[in-house]
């Protein structure tokens, strides 16, 4: 999830079981602060993604748009990160050591990079979906079906799991607990060829697709707003209706937030790699990694802010939980229809 390039973690080698605070029984203020930050991030990720999943499954109207299946897949990946990755860093943050064993360390490292790869691939499919909606507005519903999107998500999860599994299965299976970032990482620095191949297979097509697809979407939006005549009236009407869909802007903000969250960590890692100098700033590495992990929470904020459908789904979910009688719920839904 984090080491997509060769790293020089000389002082961060395999230190499983080693105590870094001289076996001091009293946790320092810094370690307690880090453990508290990790705990808050974990709770925020779990609650926000559970909310997204329950709202999507409860409100059948969200199944009309294919993009929502991709968002549901993202929420599941982030929820798994919040449940199986984040909590395992809380106690090590206090003690300064990893006590769950080497196998669990490798499993956590594998899960991190796999879930990160799933997110990257899913954002690529979201951009492809938005591109097709603008490129073929008259045929979009026949080109992008719910079954096809579900198949792409199954393919994404399987391919990401298989691409990231060689270090787990024994190919240079080094794993280490990083005392600065307080997470277990697979050591990608010992497998340069495999690491470079993995980066090209995951980052290459994803970044190229995202940049090209959103460039085309916003170029078409500018063209339409500038009043350039489009001779096919039916196509022009369908295009205008499609570009008015808030899903384009919402998905773009979501993709941008994801990459901006990981940009500081990537930048520092590249600087350390090319200059052959490790920055001796533990809190810097801790802050950058957990800023990247925090991107799993921002998704719910973006959906609430930019997706009218999701806001409606949340309101229906709240009414479903609060309104005990069916008659009161139906009356409330009628009022929602009138408001929206």
Descriptive notes:
Helix 4 crosses helix 10. The two termini are 40 Å apart. Mean pLDDT is 81; it is low at 3-26. The protein has helices at residues 29-58, 67-84, 90-95, 102-135, 140-143, 146-163, 166-169, 192-225, 233-243, 247-275, 282-293, 295-306, 308-322, 326-339, and strands spanning 175-178, 183-186. Strand 1 (175-178) and strand 2 form a beta hairpin. Strands 1-2 form a two-stranded antiparallel ribbon. It has 340 residues and is mostly helical. It has 14 helices and 2 strands, in the order H-H-H-H-H-H-H-E-E-H-H-H-H-H-H-H.
List the helices and strands and how they pair.
Blueprint: H1 29-58, H2 67-84, H3 90-95, H4 102-135, H5 140-143, H6 146-163, H7 166-169, E1 175-178, E2 183-186, H8 192-225, H9 233-243, H10 247-275, H11 282-293, H12 295-306, H13 308-322, H14 326-339
Antiparallel strand pairs: 1-2
Helix pairs in contact: 1-2, 1-12, 1-13, 2-4, 2-6, 4-6, 4-8, 4-10, 10-11, 10-12, 13-14
Give the low-pLDDT segments. 3-26
Number of strands: 2
Instruction: Name the helicity range.
Output: over 70%
Lateral strand order in the biggest sheet: 1-2
Average of per-residue pLDDT values: 81
Q: What is the C-alpha radius of gyration, as a whole number of Å?
A: 23 Å
Report the span from N to C terminus: 40 Å
Give me the strand/helix succession: HHHHHHHEEHHHHHHH
Name the shape in a single word: globular
Number of helices: 14
Largest sheet: 2 strands, antiparallel
The percent range for strand residues is under 5%
What structural category arises from helix and sheet content?
Answer: mainly alpha
> What multimeric state do the chains show?
single chain
């Amino acid at each position: 999830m984090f080491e997509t390039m060769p790293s020089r973690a000389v002082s961060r080698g395999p230190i499983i079981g080693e105590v870094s605070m001289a076996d001091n029984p009293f946790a320092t203020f810094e370690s307690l602060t880090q453990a508290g930050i990790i705990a808050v991030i974990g709770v925020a990720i779990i609650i926000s993604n559970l909310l997204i999943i329950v709202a999507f499954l409860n409100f059948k109207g969200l199944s009309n748009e294919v993009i929502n299946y991709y968002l549901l897949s993202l929420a599941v990946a982030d929820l798994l990160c919040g449940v199986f990755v984040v909590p395992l860093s809380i106690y090590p943050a206090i003690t300064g050591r990893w006590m769950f064993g080497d196998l669990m360390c490798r499993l956590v490292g594998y899960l991190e990079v796999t879930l990160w790869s799933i997110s990257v691939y899913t954002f690529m499919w979201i951009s492809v979906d938005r591109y097709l909606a603008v490129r073929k507005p008259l045929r979009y519903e026949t080109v992008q079906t719910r079954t096809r999107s579900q198949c792409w998500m199954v393919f994404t999860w399987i391919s990401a799991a298989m691409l990231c599994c060689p270090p787990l299965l024994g190919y240079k299976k080094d794993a280490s607990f990083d005392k600065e970032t307080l997470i277990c990482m697979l050591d990608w620095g010992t497998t340069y060829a495999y690491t470079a191949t993995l980066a090209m297979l995951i980052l290459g097509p994803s970044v190229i697709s995202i940049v090209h697809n959103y460039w085309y979407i916003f170029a078409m939006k500018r063209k339409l707003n500038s009043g350039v005549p489009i001779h096919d009236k039916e196509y022009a009407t369908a295009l205008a209706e499609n570009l008015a869909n808030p899903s384009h802007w919402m998905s773009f903000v979501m993709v941008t937030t994801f990459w901006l969250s990981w940009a500081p960590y990537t930048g520092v890692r590249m600087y350390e790699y090319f200059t052959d100098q490790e920055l001796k700033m533990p809190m810097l590495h801790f802050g950058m990694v957990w800023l990247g992990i925090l991107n799993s929470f921002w998704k719910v904020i973006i959906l609430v802010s930019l997706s009218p459908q999701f806001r409606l789904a949340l309101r229906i979910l709240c009414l479903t939980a609060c309104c005990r009688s069916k008659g009161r719920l139906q009356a409330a839904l009628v009022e929602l229809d009138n408001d929206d």
